[in-house]
Structure formats: C-alpha cells, structure tokens
Design brief:
19 helices; disordered N terminus; Diaminopimelate Epimerase, Chain A, domain 1; nine-stranded mixed sheet; alpha/beta; single chain; 543 residues; TIM Barrel; six-stranded mixed sheet; 38% helix
Amino acid sequence: MRFLCFQSRLGQELYDMGLNRRILLIMTCAVLMATSCRQREEVDLIIRNAKIYTVNNNFAVLQSAAIHNGRFVAVGSDANIGARYTSDSVLDLRGKFVYPGFIDAHAHFVEYAKSLAQVDLEGAESLNAVFNRLTKYRNSHPGEWIVARNLSYTSPDDAILPDNTTLNVFFKNIPVFIWTKDYKRALVNDAFLKAAGIEPAVKDGYIESEMVRSAARCLPQPSDSAMAELLKQAERNCFNVGITATTNFGSSIRDVRLIDSLRESGELQIPVYIVLEPSAENIEQYISKMPINTDRQKVLAVGIDIDGRMSQYTAVTLQPLAEGKTNGRLRIAPDSLRNLCQLAYEHGFQMCVGCVGDSAARLTLKTYADILPNKNQLRWRIENLHLIAHNDLKYFSHYNIIPSVQPAQYQYNKSFISENLDRRHKKEVFAWKQLLSQNQGIVSGSNAPYGSLNPTEMMYYAMSQEKRRTYNKQNQKMTPTQALKSLTIWAAYSQFDEQQRGSIEVGKWADFVVVGKNITTMYQPELPQVSVERTYVRGKRVK
C-alpha cells in the first residue's frame, strides 16, 4: 500500500512537472512569436524571388533585398529577408535578374539633351526621305536654323547626299547643319557657312575634323526653359535603358548651374558627374577653388581632349598610322597641359584627359607622373584610350591612373585597323586586358550623343574584340563580369562614388535595374536588343 501511495505521488509530481514544462514551452513560444513580430522591421520595398547580381567583392548572387529611405538595408535569401522585414510593397520578380544601375562614366549629357531637339534622320535611306524630314521641320519651325543628325552616307543607294547643291536650292536662306551618323563629318549649306563666318571653300559642303568642332559651336543654343525640358527628356531616355547615373564631360558654367537648379527643384533626379571644361570662367569660378562634393552636386573633375580621331589621321601618334599619312596635332601645348594639371592638383580636382594616339597618351601619362605622388588616391583618368605603347602601361599602376574607354570605338574602327595599322600598332590598339592588369579596373562610357546610349550594347562591344596578336598573345576582350563592372562598381570608383552606388550592398543607394535575361551568360550578339524592364533610383521606380 505504501508503495502504491508513493508511486501515485511520484506520478502526480511527474505529471505536474510535465504540465509545467508544457506551460513554459507554450509561454516561450508565445514570447518568441511576439518578439519575432516586433523585430520584423517595416521597410519601403522588399524584392524577393530574384537573382540579384550584387557586384560586391565576392560577386555574390542573392535572392532578396530590403529597401528603406532610398537605401539597401539588407540583402540575402528570401527566408532571411522575410524573417527580418515586412513591407506593404513586395516585388516578386519570379526569377528575373537584378543588377546595379548602370553608370555612364563618359558622356556629354547636355549635348545629348540638345541632340534631342535636332531632326533625326535615322532610317532615312533616300534623298526624298531626308528632304521630307527637313522640310517638315522647317514648316513647323519657320525661320529657325535646321540642325539634323544621323545622316547616312553609306546607304543602299550609295551616297544619298553627294554634296550640298540640293540644300542650297531648297534652303537658300536658312542655315542647315547635318551631322553624319558617326559624327565625324557634317554637311552644311552656304547659308550656314555665311552665318558661321566659315570660308565657303568647303568641298561639296562637307566639313570635318577640327572644323566640325568649331562649326558646331556656332549652332543656336536653346533657352534655359527649353534646355530644362530637353534635359528631362534625356533623363527619361537614360532611365529607359537602365542608366541611373551619368556624366557631363566638358561642362560650362551654364551647364553646371542649370543642372544644379533642376536637381535642387526635384525636376531632375539622375546624378550627373560634372567634368568641367578648362575655360577661363570655370577656372575662376570652380577650378581655382575647392571641388564641390555634395549629395546633390559633384563638381570634382576637369576634362579636355588633346588630339583627334584615329580614322581621320588626327590622332597624335609616335609613328604615322599609315604610309603617306602624317601625325595629328595636339590641341593644347604641352606646357599648357602641364599648367592645367598642376592647377587641378593644387586645388584637389581630378584630371580627365582624352588621348586617342599613343604619343598623346605618353605625353599625358608623363605629365601626370611629374605631378602625382606614387600610389595616390586622386584617381586621375585617361579618356577615350585607343592606342597605348606597351612600355607606357606601367604608369597606370604606379600612379593609380584609371583607363576610360568607349567599347563601341573598336567596332567603329575595326575595318580601319585591319586596313591601315601595321603589326606593332595592331598589338597596341584597344589593349583593354593589358590595361586591366595594371590596376584591376577599367571604365566604359557611351560618349553620347556621339555613341549609343545603350549599356548592354556597350557590354557587347566590350566582350566582342576579335582575336589578334598582342603582347603575351593575350586576348583583349573583357569577360562578362569585367564588362558589367566597367559600367557599375568600377565606374562608381572612378567618380569617387563607390561608397554610395555601383553595387547592391547594405548602405548604398537603391539604384538598380530589372532584366528578364541574364546579361552575363546570354548569347552575346543578342545583348544590344535586351530591354530593361524596370529601373529604380533611390528605391523609387523611374521606368
């Protein structure tokens, strides 16, 4: 009996202990659930079920991201982000691809905006089609100069405008200026030559090389209000192709002030990196003072092109590019270049010098080397690099000089290279991989409006160099990863902005694009036709 009583008491104690444990377990679960609910932070937007190419140091590909106040607050797996964050706005991408917003590190944003007001002759492959468009513009803009672009002189019916005779008949008293598709030449009528004060002895009405640059300066400028609308249209075009930050190379004071006012009023959202032209006004107003580096405005750089084009034999080279041809001439005296670089260095500005020929590049690199400390963080750049002597590559690594290229230029110059360059020049032209090996970074730009604005087209050209004999038999085309980085994190670094954008990481602005295809693995010839489905700037959808 005692044993039975003891057994009964023990059973009751064990039951009570089990009950207490069950109660404790239930209470613990309730507390954990309540705590979990309280710890799920409310954010503005959650991306889930995506393939997010972060372009971080590990080039990680993740599923989900949380965005709040315009910045990424977390990036990880769907489970991880879902457990930590909640939002009224959840973007389920169903396996689509997310990339950092593209950064166009060499563009002429203001000139591109102005080009949108010009008559677009794209697709006008006959004389009648050209004149129909020009006449339609004249009728809707009576009395105004006619400025057009994208004239094709390699159309199926050969040269559709062999000379300016017809222009002189149809537009006798109205100045006409027509850019060719490649922006190497312009066709003008006699009324333009007279208005611009150019000698009429121009063969067939075509002007080219240095004369084009000076003639283009004579074109009428839009008013500030008209320019504001054109800049907003240019911004929309950038967003449509996934460009979330751009550059205005060769900025005047008017450009800087207009862009700043539109950014301040909220009418312009796209960040514009200002590269100043070295005019007397800019030197007095900006370059002789400290750079401006705010969230709204970045005026940090000075830029100048010091030689011409390879295909026009105006690039300044160590040896003539072809038999019977002469070298181009520098657009600035070496002493003047040195003085400008010294001024920029003393006041903390970045230098961006455009060099097509190997002689121009050598002059600039040696000038940089005489001024810059070894292994500095000033990030001076060489723009539009075409031809670089093998022995001059060392300057890039020694002085942390950033190579900036326009990948489409290889395609534009491919036939010229094949037909004109000797064996040595062919080894040294468009040496992108050799430049990359110097400091593990290279920057791509569109050169818009003088090149296509499309970033995936730039990627395609960067990856499509044909095999050719180079030093160490090295293939010069970029890999898909390198081509993507040249338009994202490396571009951001070249503009002192790698802490704010260029990759999808915690703390950076939520600038990103959504694409239906994997642009790093897809069939490369289809890249230029890839369309960006969505574009976000600071977490807000802009396309």
